[in-house]
Amino acid sequence: MSVLSKLYAYLYIRGFKVWISYKTNAALTMLSWIIPVFTYYFTGTALGNKIVSVLGGGNYTAFVVIGLAFQGYVSSTITTVSQRLRNEQLYGTLEYYVLSPSGVLGFLTYSSLWGFALNSINMIVILAIGFGLGVRYSPFGIMTASIIFILLLLSSFGIAAISGAVVMITKQGNPIAFFFSTFTALMGNTVFPVTALPWYLKELSYAIPLTWALQGLRESLLEGAGIGALLNIIYILVAFTLITLPLGLYLYTKAFDKARKDGTLSQY
Amino acid sequence: MIETHSITKVFTGKKWKVEALKGIDFKAERGKITALVGPNGAGKTTLLKIISTLILPTSGSAYVDGYDVVSQPNDVRKHIGLVTVSDRLLYYRLSGMDNLLFYGSLYDMSIKEAKNRAYELLDLVGLKEWADEPTMHYSTGMLRRLAIARALMHDPDVILLDEPTLGVDVASARKVRQLVRKLSVDRTIVLTSHFMHEIEELADYIYILKNGKIIAKGSPEEIIKMAGKIVEAKLSAVTPSLERFITRYENGYAVIRGPKSLVELYTSDYHEITPSLEDAYIALAGETEQDFRPYQYRRGGAWARERPV
Questions:
Q1: Distances in Å between the alpha carbon of A190 and those of A111, A126, A137, A138, B134?
Q2: Is this prediction's pTM over 0.80?
Q3: Using a CB-CB distance cutoff of 8 angstroms, which residues of chain B are in contact with residue A14?
Q4: What percent of chain A is modeled with pLDDT above 70?
Q5: Termini Cα distance of chain A
Q6: Chain A neighbors of B107, CB-CB under 8 A
Q7: Which of A96, A257, A268 is the best substitution to test chain B (most B C-beta atoms within 10 A)?
């Protein structure tokens, strides 16, 4: 019951009601779900297919549809948490989360869910547009894709917690959120295969869970690859999760403890 | 019930170190209103935040209803309702009802429970007719009352109010004071304020803080007595030590109300008056240097004043 009321409060009251009250912003957000697919479709048909086929990535529209559909989960989970923390600092409401039994971990978890909810709509819209543009999804790979997807979310949640910890210290200026919101589209195997990148960026992109997750999601959703075929990617994502999740939660709670010790909880 | 023993708080930066609280022994009893007063940067907000577990003390101990603020913060938090000072504090795009529903859910209430409690509290704070209006349309006084309602959502035994009537018009401030008085019947209330008439009207017990130390404590009557005899006089010239006692100017003369022992050093033409709490406060606490801090540091207390701005 308590979880349901929190979901209602975070997703409907604080999430949807506030979001929809800014009507222009809501309309622009919805447009931002649709436009990139067509942008990459039209530019991609001229240029992308050649690049992707040369590099062994298959059909470019299918490649970019999977990339855009799932990339948003990473950048938005991470930026939602850090922006939310920043907003609460500015509103003067952060201290009330600290005081509540849900605490700061409840804040982190339920705040991430808003980003998750918006991106789930985003994902459905993009996959549907992809279907309309001729992309076909394999029902055989859905189970494997779900496992990869959950691991991607868990590792992203860990990174979001690290990002939250940074906001608690720096207040404004968050390199973690900046990196994931700016570079993942380019380097995370989203709109270009990593093999198209210079070697140094390629090495960096392998340090991002999204790169591996998108490779696994493409193979499972587009080619119907099963768990056995993608075990290597699943192990890598489990490793990312085992590192980022405990590390993120540790740093996040330590950042709040430090703020309480320094008396900076209410500063912004 | 709140008790603190020898609480200290030292804030340190790369090139500075400030003792915001220097061994505070404080007590607030259930059924009474205890006031913390003092100049800006005296340590009032720091003390309130230590009691509410938002700032960790450097040394000493503090208990709320018997729970230690350092080792049992979750138990303390269940027993307290806090209203801090801020221009915001609530979600402006949401109605009063939605704000309370949201905060109720943070306290593990079901939506139905939270809704019933919110209606009850909106009625208590006189905002029932405004329940569904976005709070961005509320006046400052209404926002303060809604913030108090939010602090009461989980029915805490202890209410901590940091300047509850700051920026509030006279009629609204009166409503807030009525509300505080009503709440104090079966709760422990601690409030800070710079309005001495408000403290005089509400407080059962007063602590005056200055530079992190308690310089006086007692009932309003006792505090007034501590200041000794207060006299009023007109002076054509005022020395810096008398500046804080000036109440107004009349025909080129400064009218001062201050301790007889001080005023008689400058003039023999004075008359004794019945002192108010404000007279006593000015005599005891005086004032601190002018506060140049930007807003976001002011709420941090004395330590923040030392920071480069």
A1: 25, 13, 17, 20, 40
A2: yes
A3: 91, 94, 102
A4: 93
A5: 34
A6: 100-102
A7: A96
